[in-house]
Amino acid sequence: MNFNKIKIFLYAALLLFACTRVRAQQPDPPGQVDNPNEAVNQAYLFAHMIHEDYGRLYYTVSLDGLHWHALNNMKRVFEDYKGHPDICKGHDGRYYIVGNRSDASPDINIWVSDDLISWELYNTFTPDLKSTPDYSYALQRIGAPKLYFDEDSKQYVLSWHTPHKEGGETYWASQRTLYVLSKDLKTFSDHPTRLFDWDMGTIDVFIRKIGESYYAILKDETYPTLYWTTGKTIRIAKAPSLLGPYSEPGPSISPNFREAPMLIPSPDGKIWYMYYEQYPGVSYGLSIADNMNGPWFQASGYTFYSDWDKYSLPAKVRHGCMITISRTEYDKLVEHFGIEEED
């Protein structure tokens, strides 16, 4: 009898050891550094909204691009802002953020900051949607403005999505991405222009130059079916120059019903982290690749089980943008706003 008890005990111990080993063998995401001082990218800022306060500005920060902590006790960091936050560093080394009061508002508002702490209104731009070539039938709607400063041409691309049909999924499938150009965000090109030659619903589009190519990261806004399996997923189009022509989008980076992609380089600068929201405010996914052409894999996270999560974000966060910042900027943000305590 005692011998049987010993055998059961040993079997249980071996099973526990095996489970522990399997769990321990789950690899950490690539791109991290052992010594933070050796990081190419020292810190990150996530400017976002929250589920209960849609369209207002909140901050969350990270030192590794994987584990994120809320600032300011998850309260607004700038009361005047409204929109879907998107920040870029501009021609003068300052930060610019764009937004709009609602999709029905005709105006795009631009604020500027030296330190990401204090913002002041820089300009208000009202695009003439009806002047868009081959898109004069556009509805008066401006969705989720995005801003990108192209170092090569020293100009900004201010983009957004605008539909041309009313009603449910027809409305969303009719979204097209438009843009204007500017050297200083004070004056803009004569009229909006469609970014893509192909005819497909797109929203949440942003542009990045990586290597010698330009990439447009987008949400495919066609509804998913057996005949359009990429619907409501994150995809990537590629171009040899800033304004294209862009290739047709590649395969899905995310599962269906994901939106608001965000792209950051890893601390060692060798890996790409692509975040996206499972809407409405359900969770965040993270896909990882060592180059923009893929392949991409999905990391485990946002389960709130520390032994399973390979990345984590505070509950309630909704979409916005992620950017790299310096450790000095990170420290100043933490000092000014305060940071949530570690669990």
From TrEMBL:
Q: Does the keyword tRNA processing apply?
A: no
Q: Which UniProt keywords apply?
A: Signal
PROSITE patterns hit by this protein: PROKAR_LIPOPROTEIN (PS51257)
Fetch the CDD domains from UniProt. GH43_Bt3655-like (cd08983)
Is Acyltransferase among this UniProt entry's keywords? no
Where is the secretion signal located?
1-24
What's the name of the protein?
Glycosyl hydrolase family 43
* Highest taxon of the lineage: Bacteria
- InterPro entries according to UniProt: Glyco_hydro_beta-prop_sf
